[in-house]
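Summary for the steering committee. One of the milestones for this cycle was to obtain a three-dimensional model of the protein with S-adenosylmethionine bound, which we needed before selecting residues for the alanine scan. The sequence and ligand used are listed below.
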Amino acid sequence: MSMTTDLTERYRLFSDEEWFDAIRKSVQDASLGLPAFPPDELVRRANHAELELALTKASEIFRVIKQMARTYGRPLGPPSTVLDYGCGWGRVARFFLRDVPPANLTGCDVDRELVAASQRAMPESNFLSIEPDAPLPFAEESFDLICSVSVLSHLPAPVHIQVVTSLARVLRTGGVLVATTLGRRHLGLMKKWARSPRQDLEAGQQKWLDALPDLDAATQRYEYGEFVSGVTGTLAGLLPGYGIAFAPDAWVQARWPDTLEVVDINHDIWSQSVITARKRGLP
Ligand SMILES: C[S@@+](CC[C@H](N)C(=O)[O-])C[C@H]1O[C@@H](n2cnc3c(N)ncnc32)[C@H](O)[C@@H]1O
């Protein structure tokens, strides 16, 4: 039996808390047999945070994704096929390995180096580099569950729509999509940053403020249901318009494709807004 299949067997009966704890400990303890971590530089590139905080946030969003999948009719289990869209270095993807066999776990991202880090950490799962403008290399109706954590949060409106439409195509009928975007919580946070002396802010925070110089106007537009975005320059060479993006509920309800029923938008369960949708049609 291979290392990762052993892993699913070994941790299958762990509670969420025990499982999250094992992943946290695996940063220091290779004997746990859990997926390895990339260099700190890649963690910062993908998550703008140190590893410990990045993992804590990942465990929180994994819990929400799992709960949404159960609530909306696609509980995670050995038969589930899962796609992590914009998987980065596999921060969130690894949490699925207790519930889902590694071969059923797929991740994709436009950043080749991050995809390679995911594949090295989880060799029995499927990690693919994708082109931002090309169709997704998966058959229609491939996945029971798709998650996309902190990806739409960075994409301008036309790309947001294009991505969600592609994800709807590869989601199975009755399958669940959980995606996060920035919301009013982040606008509030940015207003706090704006009140601090500029020299006290981290470079990333300054960049975000520069991308949205009039926060009051941005908030007003958001509350009116307008998509609000600004370019930070990160990844700009690769993806024009990459930056920070706030998608209000009314905009999501109106603009997401009809094949998806938006069943929940929650602003309070995680640091970003969490949108859950189910693919319409006969299950
Ligand atoms: C903030 S990181 C989050 C990574 C990962 N989801 C996580 O939570 O750790 C955003 C990720 O989205 C990827 N990305 C950006 N635009 C994308 C696109 N159009 N399609 C797929 N991935 C994209 C970036 O390369 C990056 O890995």
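Key point for the committee: The pocket of S-adenosylmethionine is lined by residues 46-47, 86-88, 91-92, 109-111, 114, 132, 149-151, 154-155, 159, 163, 239 (CB under 6 Å).
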